[in-house]
């Protein structure tokens, strides 16, 4: 649903361009940072915005931004000169079919149907800031034998169904895994 009338933004604290603030009083998402847009076009109708200080500005662009990979925002207004980024809570919950849970010092955005976390953030000076996405790379190399043991020693066929990438291992590795399993059983029997 496109809002073609006036928008009111209730932000009482100005931040540098970068952090995103969730705003229950905003009708639209907005930013002053043109470089955040994945696509940007001129608005088809004028969008007049009243800022918290009472000044009136007009949006010069509209487009899509993803503050997080899991959080695409459509119809974000570009307001040149604004030093903040706002996420309209009502627009967010409607467009992404999500639930936002607030506590005194944090919030969590979850997909309504799956419960999957879409985003999270924290409170500071009465405003709720979206946590920036952090890229975490975890590289590990695990032997098929280790995976076999962690999954409760399933047969090789069941193991390949549970962990499809195991089918890329060559047969010698599968034999080694079976030999390791047999050796473990023999060692355990000897200890008893």
UniProtKB/TrEMBL annotation:
Residues 20-93 form the Retrovirus-related Pol polyprotein from transposon TNT 1-94-like beta-barrel domain. InterPro entries: GAG-pre-integrase_dom, PolX-like_BBD. Residues 126-167 form the GAG-pre-integrase domain. This is GAG-pre-integrase domain-containing protein. It comes from Cajanus cajan (Pigeon pea). The lineage of its organism: Eukaryota, Viridiplantae, Streptophyta, Embryophyta, Tracheophyta.
